[in-house]
Amino acid sequence: MHHGDVTPEIAEGLLILRERIAAARIPSSALDESINIAAWNIREFGRVHRTEPAIHYLAEILGQFDLIALVELRDDLTDLGRVLCYLGPEWRVIFSDWIEDAGGNKERVAFLFDRRAVIHNGLAAEIDAPRAKEAKEYLATQSFWRAPYMCSFRAGNFDFLAIATHIRWGDTIESRMAELELLSDWIDTRFKNKFAEDHDLIVMGDLNTPRITDPIFDILLGHGLKIPQPLVNLTVGDRIIEGTNLGFNARYDQILHRATIPENFSNKGGALDFYIDDASIEALFPGKNYTRDKFTYQMSDHLPIWIQVKTDIDGYRLDQIVQDAGR
After folding, report:
1. What is d(CA 288, CA 144) in angstroms, rounded to the nearest whole number?
2. Of 5, 107, 254, 298, which has the most beta carbons under 10 Å away?
3. pLDDT tens track of the chain, all 327 residues?
4. In whole angstroms, what is the distance from residue 168 CA to residue 176 CA?
5. Half-sphere exposure of 229 (CA within 13 A, CB side)
6. Structural domain that includes position 73
7. Nearest-5° Cα angle at 272, 233 to 250
8. Domain assignment present for 253
9. Is residue 2 part of a domain?
C-alpha cells in the first residue's frame, strides 16, 4: 500500500481500520497457490465524491484482496483513479460502460486486480439478453437493467471466468426474480456450448437476494451455481452475521461458483466489517458527526464479501489423468 505522507488524523483512522480488517481474519494469499477474491458494492462510487480519508480507507480495504468485483461504480471514474494511486502501480482495472437511463443509473461494473497475482486473459464483455428476430431486427423480449460484465482471468495455473452484476431492485420481488432467471438461463446455455472460453465460473456482486433461504435464491442454484461452503454461514472472523448490509440482516451480496474442480474453493471466506456500529463511525471520521447515511456515502452501505481460491491445480489434474487411465 502506498498511502504516502498522510495527516495524523488519517494515519490514526488507518490504524483503527486495520484493527477492523484484522478482525475479519482474511488469510494472506500466496503467489501461484491462492488468491483472495471479493465483491463490493461501494455506494454511488463516483457520484458522491469521497473525502481524502475515505479514499485512503477504501484503498486499504481493497488492497486486502487480489481480485475485486466492484458494483455501483458510476460514470465518473475520478475517485476510482484516486484509489488506484494509493493501491500502487501493479494494480489494474477493467470496467464496463454505463447506461444513461434510470434503470442503468449511470452505473458501471468493474474488476480491480493486482496483476502480480492475477492476469486478465483477454475476454471482457457485457452480457446481452437473448434476442429473437422481428421483421428485420433482432430484439430482446426482456432486458438487464444493468448488463452483467464478464471477464476471463488466470491465477497460477487456474483459468476462470468471472461475472459481476448488480441485479435490479425493481418495484416487485417478481421483477428481481425475472432478471435472476434471465442471468441463470444465460449461464446455463452459454456454458453448455463447446466454445465457452472456460468452464470454471465465479458469479459475484449485489444480487439483491435478502436471504439465501428465499425462493429468489433458488433461481441461482437451479443451473449449477453453488455457494462456497465458507459463505453458507456468513462470518466476520468468529462472529456470525445475517447479512452484508450495515443492519447485518440482508444477504444482498454473493459470491457463487460453478466449478470443474470444487476443491479449488478453500474453507476460508467471509465478510469484512469496516463499520461495526453507529458509535464507531466517529473513530474513522473525527469531528464530522456523520450519521449512518452520511457514512455510507463515504464508505458504503454494503460490506465486502470474500473467498480464498486455490490456484495450484496441477496435483488434481495429474490425479485425474491417472484415474482416467484406470490405474
Report:
1. 39
2. 254
3. 789 999 999 999 999 999 999 999 999 999 999 999 999 999 999 999 999 999 999 999 999 999 999 999 999 999 999 999 999 999 999 999 999 998 999 999 999 999 999 999 999 999 998 888 999 998 888 889 999 999 999 999 899 999 999 999 888 888 889 999 999 999 999 888 888 877 889 999 999 998 898 888 888 888 789 999 999 999 999 999 999 999 999 999 999 998 877 777 778 999 999 999 999 999 999 999 999 999 999 999 999 999 999 998 665 555 555 455 565
4. 6
5. 8
6. 8-324
7. 50
8. yes
9. no
Pairing of strands 34-45, 67-74: parallel
- Tell me, letter by letter, the H, E, C secondary structure of the chain: CCCCCCCHHHHHHHHHHHHHHHHCCCCCCCCCCEEEEEEEEEEEECCECCCHHHHHHHHHHHCCCCEEEEEEEECCCHHHHHHHHHHCCCEEEEECCCCCCCCCCCEEEEEEEECCCCEEEEEEEECCCCEEEECCEEEECCCCCCCCEEEEEEECCEEEEEEEEECCCCCCHHHHHHHHHHHHHHHHHHCCCCCCCCCCEEEEEECCCCCCCCHHHHHHHCCCCECCHHHCCCEECCEECCCCECCCCCCCEEEEEECCCHHHEEEEEEECCCCCCHHHHHHHCCCCCCCHHHHHCCCCCECCEEEEEECCCHHHHHHHHHHHCCC
Max intra-chain CA distance, the chain:
69
Whether 1 is in a domain gets the answer no
C-alpha 258/C-alpha 223 separation (Å) is: 9
pTM over 0.90: yes
Write down the residue that cell numbers 477493467 correspond to.
Answer: 94
Question: What CATH number should be reported for the domain holding residue 56?
Answer: 3.60.10.10
Number of domains in the chain: 1
Q: Which of 104, 152, 91, 103 is closest to 125 using CA atoms?
A: 152
